[in-house]
């Protein structure tokens, strides 16, 4: 680890390589450790809403006087971020609309700048950890390799003025490392805010039965227990969305992280049957019919993800409705593939500024989410937040406050009772004086 963390130690996890384990007991909701990002970057889409330096969301942020793009809380934040922002400031002005590096490219540029600064000061253990992160560069498929090649080209195009870039092979390795070990910083509703590298958190191995959860406080990552832990227990997080059945989860793990999970849930598949629940009929549905519908569901989910960028919102909503009708002939409403498309439909309704439609889909989803996700799930709390805020916006205050209270109950465990999200939520739910 980059430093000593009381109650947590690094060890060689059998069959997993490196890992972390606790050396004392931790209770549900207790903070194991908190760490600052080695390097991070705010999403371009969130510029103007969040401070580039500390990720504080507020109105009236001050813009950089040169590029007029980056925004800050105050002069202190602007000065603190200059070493990183200068990598982009003049380039954004020079390239104008042609300035288009990916978020991954922007993060890698900052990592390289940080490593250079630290090397000039002293040999830092954090630098070694960045180099020690898993890359799986030899396992990358053609599509990902092509994407990394494009990111390397963008790095040369947009950042060569400020950076002495490593050779091509080393850059590909670094991009692969960041792809495997980077973390998406999300807000209370799980909306994407930015991307970061946390070397200490990257040491934590995956399980579909996680013992901890990672949440964010500005640019810091907090690791909290979501089940009671005893000395010697390994610290485990989930790298993926746990809603889906075993085969889907492991397909995602192989595609993104190049391993298959062998946790107890993956061995027993104990939740697969309820996750793939079919409609009750007087005559049982043939297994072949169910298998065909599972294949259809996976295909439509892939197509929807691909077509999101090209179809209009109304076309996407129609696609959701048609697939739900098709799957609904076989699947129960609580089936995870039905829930997936309902969730997508809710998102489209939100984009179309149709709160009534969003609530209609959201209410169908949240009840099943509460049963299918683990306890203290951010996916569940974020749904209650969305529904609470939507209902409050429609002046359905009692329904909205009830939903917000359910979100608060979960987030007091996942984020800690004193997190600023909770302070704001209590005001929204009218639990404290403004």
UniProtKB/TrEMBL annotation:
A Gene Ontology cellular-component term: nucleus
Matching PROSITE patterns: SET, ZF_MYND_1, ZF_MYND_2
Reactions listed under catalytic activity: L-lysyl(4)-[histone H3] + 3 S-adenosyl-L-methionine = N(6),N(6),N(6)-trimethyl-L-lysyl(4)-[histone H3] + 3 S-adenosyl-L-homocysteine + 3 H(+)
Enzyme class: transferase
InterPro entries xref list: H3K4_H4K5_MeTrfase (IPR050869), SET_dom (IPR001214), SET_dom_sf (IPR046341), TPR-like_helical_dom_sf (IPR011990), Znf_MYND (IPR002893)
Keyword Ion transport (UniProt): no
One record GO biological process: methylation
Record SUPFAM superfamilies: SET domain
GO molecular function ontology, one term from the record: zinc ion binding
Keywords recorded for this protein, A-Z: Metal-binding, Methyltransferase, S-adenosyl-L-methionine, Transferase, Zinc, Zinc-finger
Domain SET: 6-240
Record domain MYND-type: where: 51-89
EC nos: 2.1.1.354
Protein name stated in the entry: [histone H3]-lysine(4) N-trimethyltransferase
Organism: Sparus aurata
Gene name of the encoded protein: smyd2b
